[in-house]
Amino acid sequence: MPQNYVPVFIFIAVVGTLIPITLLLTKLVRPSNPHREKLLPYECGIDPVDRARGRYTVRYYIVAILFVVFDVETIFLFPWAVKFKAFGLFGLLEMLIFLGILIVGYIWIWQKGALEWV
Amino acid sequence: MLSLPIFLVASVVKIVLVIFILLTAVAYTVWLERKVVGHMQNRWGPSRVGPFGLLQPLADGVKFLLKEDLTPPHVYRPLFIAAPMIAVICALTSISVIPFGTAIPVAGHIIPLQITDLNIGLLVILGVTSIGVYGVALAGWSSNSKYSLLGGLRASAQMVSYEICLGLSLVGVLIVSGSFSLQQIVESQRGYFWGFIPKWNIFYGCQFVAFFIYLMAAYAETNRIPFDLPEAETELVAGYHTEYSAMKFAMFFMAEYANMITVACLATILFLGGGNGPLFGPPLLRLILPTFYFVAKVFVFLFTYIWVRGTLPRFRYDQLMAFGWKFLFPLAIANLVVTALVVAYRS
Amino acid sequence: MCTGWYTSDMAPVATTFFFYFLSGLAILSGVLVITRKNPVHSALALILTLLSVAGLYLMLYAPFVAGVQIILYVGGIMVLFLFVIMLVNIERSEREKQFNQQWLPGILAACGLGLLFVLIYVKGKALFSQPVITMPETENTQRVGMMLYSNYMFPFEIASLLLLVAIIGAVVMAKKRI
Questions:
Q1: ipTM of the complex as predicted
Q2: pTM for the full predicted model
Q3: Is residue A19 part of a domain?
Q4: C94 to chain A, closest Cα gap in Å
């Protein structure tokens, strides 16, 4: 492992042991008086009806998949951006073509109403 | 340049110190928020425990430890316990690449005030933030309660949507600075132009639009007002942590405030010049001043956070999505094209 | 602020430990992905696999690839997976039979993969004569940028077309009325 990355792993290890230890510690000192009413799913005092994991709207799925696509686009922009000064106008032109194609897609999904939440 | 054993020992010491300071800072950010919002709403805020209520975070901590921690039978147990841990570990880990100031000499070695400087520092922070989504999504799912599931879904959809804008707003800074290393980004903002204006990215790199986008995306990423829909009290009780209590709830709380601090640090480094500022006085003061500037800028950013919370109402969910996808996203693309044009013209 | 104090030379630290730790984790969680009945567990195990592979990329002095692996696969694609899995009725999928007993294709595929592995192991030394990549770690991202936007410009532009297709496909499949 390259030297500079080791502290990050040490950090994760330290935090990753500290947090469970805290949880275990609280287990020793806290009270525990479970009661049927307390253990019900919280629904503002009414007895819960129906299952909790019902079906939900497909828009969450659209958002997630659009996120993946545009995330890939952002990742493509990163190495281009850090090296931009070496590319100059040629690099800009190249990226404009790339972005242009994607913006066509963006306008299309806007037109089709995939960005509407209602 | 440090030799390897000293480098490792120094990083362990720094890690322990940073975790301690960060957790204290989290506790006092909560205090600050309660106090400031209290005064904005014509109340006193915490005032009973200690002078100005300064010991309130301590009392809260003890209370979190001693409260009954319910794990209801309807939840999915392993993930119910793992979710807050994922959230808080991810929230804390991003601090490990933040540079807090200059390097200080300790016992003959020059120790930088940063746990470690990575060449992909910015990518690490983005990656860790994106893992943080799981804490929220799994908490909502494993709770097996309607409010929690809705809160978790809303939170994760909102976080992924604004992650795009967050990433795009950073591209302009990358064009100007030419590196992922946070240390080098800070370095590139040293000095002044036109005699007196600091060469911070927000001024010199013309990144004020990017700063605005970053600000909005950061507020949404940390689920803060005006984007606090995942825990909109009036509709969803407490969102994804409805079923959580005591220490597990405290972990989500800690994660939220630790994320706020990270976001503030990142804004300071990327747009406001990090620890750069006028240096003067004796050598000792010169060593301390960068850290002071850094902390001051972070404080201003955090104060703005609280100020916004005290001022703005909450968006509707469709407004939130429209704002992210139809306004911030095209704006971010336009900003990066303009930045690229300006930089190409300059060189 | 004084410059030049950050360590630019990256000495490898505890290579053996990290290699066996990360690859062991990758294999273990990879096995968990296919043996767990609960799809959420499988997804989480897959996340762990991807993370440990990202660690292995770091060991190969390819930090940019590691970062991309975490941001895209762990932070992007797996979130999508989890969203879809949350839609699925977990209780039913736990009762279903996990493996369909197709021994013949399974054994054939395993043999083929094993053969490929042996072939790579034997021929690989001739193909990649240089055992250690001597690219400086500090310049990794910049080099990736250089390569991608000069040598591989055309594939890069094609990638945007692929993304366009992905956008259109997703919306067409998910929306009822176009």
A1: 0.86
A2: 0.87
A3: yes
A4: 15
